[in-house]
Amino acid sequence: MGFVPDEGKALPPPTIINRNSVWLAGVGWCSALLQNAINHRPPLKSGLHRQFLLATIGWFIGYHITKKENYTYARLDRDMHEYIRLHPEDFAAKEKKTFAEIVEPFHPVR
What we know:
The chain has 3 helices and no strands. It is mainly alpha-helical.
């Protein structure tokens, strides 16, 4: 059993470009720039291998966080639909009202 349980492996994989991956890759890259600035090196020009490495690590972690997030929401949706299926009396369909029944009659004031 890894980060995502075996039943979560049936879910489709998340897209390569997702908000968690982009965000954490940016955090990794900025941390490399900050480390360069703290050590009085040119932030953008030095340690390109470190910048690339930290951005890649952030992207990887973000991808797996998205997989865990998708599994969690799928599990919650499954449990919610199962509860609705087992307790239909709590989720009875309401009668449909027209818009005229909802809105009060309009009487202009002059």
